[in-house]
Give the backbone structure.
Amino acid sequence: MNSTAVKMLKIWIPVIVVVIHLMFFSFLLGKHQKSRPKEPTPTEVGTAVNNAPSTMEPSLATPAGGDADVSLPVPAPPPPAPKSLVPAITPFSASYFANDIRPLPQQLGTLVQNCKGGIAIDLTSRKIHWEKAGTTAQPIASITKMMTVLEVAEFIDKSQGSLNLETPVKVTAAASKIGGRQVWLDPRETFTINELLKCTLIRSANDCAYLLAEFLGGSEQAFVQVMSSRAKELGCQNFVFHNAHGLPTGNQENMGTPLEIAYLSSILLDIPAITRWSSVRHDTIRENTKPFNLDSTNHLLGTCPGVNGMKTGFTNKAGYCLCATCERNSRRVVVVILGCEKGTIRDNIARQLIDWVYTL
């Protein structure tokens, strides 16, 4: 090998060694980079945090200026307000009903002479088609209970959920001593408000009406004062209530006019909790012990098409009284009859007046 070749080898050998070392270090560096975990992007960081299972109690508040790592707890919605039993009521006034008096057929005109007062109204059109002493206050006996049950429903609505139709009511000694038509309440018994309404509306039970008034008002007299003041608030100026059931109080009788009774019926027809029972002919209580039959005092139910309530009454001074509501083909009619000598005459007058109004 000549001197030139030797010189060239001396130059290239170090270069080749350096290149080999560089290649070796490059190989080691690349392997090290592959073994390191990939740095997550900001989006991947957020996704990982949100999807990770929480091991901490959720924070109730986010610090000022900070980001929430955990979703805030969603507060439970408030419980729904109890549904009202009584819809909005339009007060009574002189213009509530319109006069559209029609002549009665001769036979019916003779028949209505057997009552002291009454009225026949098409509630759908609010037209009065017949009346006799329609604005004169007269004894109303158990028709009183129409105002009683309205106030029961309004007491429940005003209780803001503390009372409902299934609220239990324990029989009191005072209620068990109320006479007249009754279900013979026993102080050892307890009934729901709904059961007492059933007895009041179907059987016209005086003891049940008294117990409802006593329970809701704190005393019957306190409840009766509410009945009287509420009647006036509704625009009915001629109702006079001495008790919640309609029996005479000494020589005093509960009073009302046929016109205002008819108005009251128009309110009650829109309260299902009341019409549920005013339209029933037969039912029972004490089903689990000794069943007691409840038979309606409204004999037009089931015998006069469309009649669906409302209330009867009788005392010696009031005579036989009736407020009968009817619905045929979505048309509502009410007939009020006061002061008949016999129940059969009262029912016959009411039946014929109802049929007559539907012919107009």
